[in-house]
C-alpha cells in the first residue's frame, strides 16, 4: 500500500473539509458545524502557530488526518502537544496509514521540543484504545475529564 503522510496545505481545504465532516458527523455522530467554522479551523492550522494538521494521501486522495494543538502543562512546567484528532477512513483503520499518522505526531512533538504529547478518546471507542496500547501509549489514571 503506497501512501504519503505530509503537512496539510491550502490546496487540501475542500478534501480536508469533507474528511473532517466524515469524522465529526459520520464517525462521532456530532452535529455538523457550519462550513465557515471548519474552514476557519483549517486555516488556523495552516498557519502552524496554534497547531498543525497532518494528512494521509493515497493516489491524490486524502484518506486520513491528525491534528496537534500546542499548549502548556502546569504539571510539566513546559509546552506540550494535544493530539486532538486521529482519523482515517474505514478501509485504512488498523493499517500502516493510521500508525504513520500517529508516529508523525509523536515525531513532530519530539523534534520541536514539546515535553510530551497527550490525547483522549471516547470510552466507547475500544478499537482506538487497542490501537493506542499497540503504539505503547500509557493510559492515564489520575484525571477525570469534564467539559462545559
Write the layout of secondary structure elements.
Elements: E1 4-7, H1 13-27, H2 35-47, E2 51-58, E3 61-73, E4 78-88, H3 96-111, E5 117-118, H4 126-134
Parallel strand pairs: 4-5
Antiparallel strand pairs: 1-2, 2-3, 3-4
Helix pairs in contact: 1-2
Word description of this protein:
The protein has 148 residues and is of the alpha+beta class. The chain has one domain: Gcn5-related N-acetyltransferase (GNAT) (Aminopeptidase), CATH 3.40.630. Helix content is 36%, strand content 26%. The protein has helices spanning 13-27, 35-47, 96-111, 126-134; strands spanning 4-7, 51-58, 61-73, 78-88, 117-118. The protein has a five-stranded mixed β-sheet with strand order 1-2-3-4-5, sandwiched between helices. Helix 1 crosses helix 2 (35-47). It is globular and about 40 Å long.
Spatial order of the strands forming the largest sheet: 1-2-3-4-5
The counted number of beta strands is 5
Question: How does the overall form come out from the CA principal axes?
Answer: globular
Radius of gyration: 15 Å
Which CATH class? Alpha Beta
Mean pLDDT: 91
Order of helices and strands: EHHEEEHEH
Architecture per CATH nomenclature, i.e. the level-2 architecture = 3-Layer(aba) Sandwich
CATH topology value:
Aminopeptidase
Main sheet attributes: strand count, strand direction, barrel closure: 5 strands, mixed
Looking at CATH, the homologous superfamily is Gcn5-related N-acetyltransferase (GNAT)
* Poorly predicted spans: none
Structural class: alpha+beta
Strand content: 25-35%
Query: How far apart, in Å, are the first and last alpha carbons?
Result: 42 Å
Number of domains: 1
How many H/I helices?
4
Percentage of residues in helical conformation: 25-40%
Keywords: Acyltransferase, Transferase
Organism: Paenibacillus peoriae
Protein name: Ribosomal protein S18 acetylase RimI-like enzyme
InterPro entries: Acyl_CoA_acyltransferase, Diverse_Substrate_AcTransf, GNAT_dom
Amino acid at each position: 500500500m503506497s501512501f504519503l503522510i505530509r503537512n496539510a496545505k491550502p490546496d487540501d481545504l475542500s478534501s480536508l473539509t469533507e474528511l473532517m465532516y466524515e469524522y465529526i458527523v459520520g464517525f462521532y455522530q456530532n452535529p455538523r458545524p457550519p462550513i465557515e467554522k471548519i474552514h476557519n479551523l483549517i486555516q488556523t492550522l495552516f498557519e502552524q502557530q496554534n497547531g498543525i494538521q497532518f494528512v494521509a494521501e493515497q493516489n491524490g486522495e486524502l484518506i486520513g488526518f491528525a491534528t496537534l494543538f500546542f499548549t502548556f502543562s502546569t504539571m510539566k512546567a513546559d509546552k506540550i502537544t494535544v493530539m486532538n484528532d486521529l482519523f482515517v477512513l474505514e478501509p485504512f483503520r488498523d493499517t500502516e496509514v493510521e500508525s504513520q499518522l500517529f508516529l508523525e505526531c509523536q515525531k513532530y512533538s519530539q523534534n520541536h521540543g514539546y515535553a510530551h504529547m497527550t490525547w483522549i478518546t471516547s470510552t466507547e471507542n475500544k478499537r482506538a484504545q487497542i490501537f493506542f496500547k499497540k503504539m505503547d501509549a500509557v493510559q492515564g489514571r489520575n484525571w477525570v475529564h469534564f467539559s462545559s
